[in-house]
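input
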Amino acid sequence: MGSLSCCLLLALALLGPRAAAARKCDLQGLWRNELGSNMTLSALDVAGTFSGSYHTAVAATNKQILVSPLQGAQQHPAAKGQPTFGFTVQWQFADSTTAFVGQCFVDRRGKETLETTWLLREEVPSRRDAWKATR
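output
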């Protein structure tokens, strides 16, 4: 009996990482970042698009920060793995829009993490000021 339980434990240990690695990343739900911002994403539709809301904890404004709508798409929504995605946020408290692109990763323990890069474009009064409008 002792050797059977040992083999079962070994089999579970060997299958565990594979099961987590095969797990599909799911963008739907509540996400928080290390700065305290959070976003909520809806389920993907059949085309891979989603919507949601973003509440930033960091902004260069004296205005009240408001929850802002977002729209996005995930690449190959039916595929397994760690998908790429993109979304835009239309800020409700500023004359700016931010575009995010990234990828969802699942670690060996099944924890999902979003790695993203973003560009923020502010409205400026003239084309002459365009050079300072993007961060």
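quick obs: Residues 15 and 34 are 31 Å apart (CA to CA).
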